[in-house]
């Protein structure tokens, strides 16, 4: 069992199990990832009950059975140590598209290479039908599966907006004018959207979660789970446009350009994309902090202040 006195006991733990060259390669909302060599990685989960892993494994398998131009995660083995869930997964190829925008400034001009890679990933994800397992997933921060008691994505997401806004809405209302009316406008806009066939939604296509090869082609998509569900592929596109560059000096400009690009190239209605971006902000604003000292909270507030659906007259 890992020694709790060590600042990071897991490399020694994996080494004791016979893995050589153990190295920490990433960390995110859901946990820390270590490469173990021989095409294998281990993910040490945080905040995930061990019983949930079989559902995650089923969702991964649902995605992997469809031919995609990029690799996706596959869970090979599972264990629990001192109440901590550890999954062993195949190592995915490529290198992250970009570092996180919180740590590096992006250039003003969006590159054709990155735009093409994003479109390839969005089209690929939209080719995977939504499944019952995906419908049973719970969005980060919520207390129930997104689709529970709902038959369509738009209604399920509208209900989540109401629940999430009620969690810590007064804190966000301090930063966003006409908050309650904006929540209601977003809810109504979501419920007015046409019903569409649902597909697999990753829900967190930030640049570090997309791996490219040396020629700029996407070869892997990783870190499913933060907002993974079965849903409208336009929601995936809306969120991807918004989170590409969240903190850089050209963040708002990049979000606007990518939203327009996805509307043109993928045929999504701009009003739907705006509604989905407002919904994303309203359902994730308090996951890392509950005031403007937190970067994600500030980003959500800024997105809502400029959003055409949330702030419509």
Automatic annotation (TrEMBL):
Residues 22-255 form the Aminoglycoside phosphotransferase domain. Transmembrane segments: none annotated. The keyword Transferase applies. GO terms for molecular function: transferase activity. Keywords: Transferase. Pfam families: APH. It comes from the Bacteria. The keyword Transferase applies. This is Aminoglycoside phosphotransferase.
